[in-house]
Every structure is written in C-alpha cells, then in structure tokens.
C-alpha cells in the first residue's frame, strides 16, 4: 500500500469519525430527524472503505490514532439506550391503549335491543 492510498484511507476514516461525532451530537440533542441521513452517510463511508484494498495493520493503526473505536463504542451505547427508551414508551402506549379499550368495553351499550311481549 503506497502513501497516497494511506492518505485516502485516512481521509475516509476522518469523514467516518466526523459522521460518528455528528450522530453522537444528534442523539445527545434528541434530534431524531437527523439520524437517518447521518446513518446513511456513515454506511456509505463504510461501504466505500470496505471496497478498498488495504493492510489490516495500517487500518487498525489509523483507527487507533483517530480514536474511532471509543467513539464507536460510545455511539453503540447511546443507540442502545435510545432504543430502550423508545421501546419503553411504546410499551406504555400499548398498555394505555389496552386499558382504555377495556374501560370503554365495560360501559358500552349494545346497539341491538330485543323487545319481547309476553
């Protein structure tokens, strides 16, 4: 791998790091609308990096020097926490909906009445 290829790989890894930082910032600010485009951008960078041929040791060294691994770990943790929060909110809404339905059923009146003369 020549120096030019290493520089190109490094520039892509810097873009990847920036995209990861943007995702972390969006999660911290609860800006959910920004997550989709940022995740797509980041995935495009991953696909581009994977399509290149490079030495694994150089890749690991660059990732270590750019502190990408701790950022990735932080992002994963934040995404899992956000996922758990959203799941809890959905569960609460489902529970409220179920409670509301059962409450309304008790007091509903059947629309069909039978009149019978004896």
UniProtKB/TrEMBL annotation:
This is Flagellar protein FliT. May act as an export chaperone for the filament capping protein FliD. Its main location: cytoplasm. It comes from Clostridium algidicarnis. It is found in: Cytoplasm, Cytosol. Keywords: Bacterial flagellum biogenesis, Chaperone, Cytoplasm. InterPro entries: FliT (IPR008622). Belongs to the bacillales FliT family. Pfam families: FliT.
């Amino acid at each position: 791998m020549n120096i030019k290829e290493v520089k190109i790989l490094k520039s892509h890894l810097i873009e990847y790091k920036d995209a990861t930082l943007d995702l972390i910032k969006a999660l911290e600010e609860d800006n959910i609308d920004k997550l989709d485009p940022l995740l797509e951008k980041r995935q495009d960078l991953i696909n581009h990096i994977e399509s290149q041929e490079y030495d694994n040791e150089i890749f690991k060294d660059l990732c270590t020097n750019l502190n990408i691994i701790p950022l990735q770990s932080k992002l994963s943790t934040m995404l899992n926490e956000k996922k758990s929060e959203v799941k809890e909110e959905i569960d609460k809404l489902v529970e409220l909906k179920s409670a509301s339905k059962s409450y309304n059923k008790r007091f509903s009146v059947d629309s069909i009445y039978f009149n019978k003369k004896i």
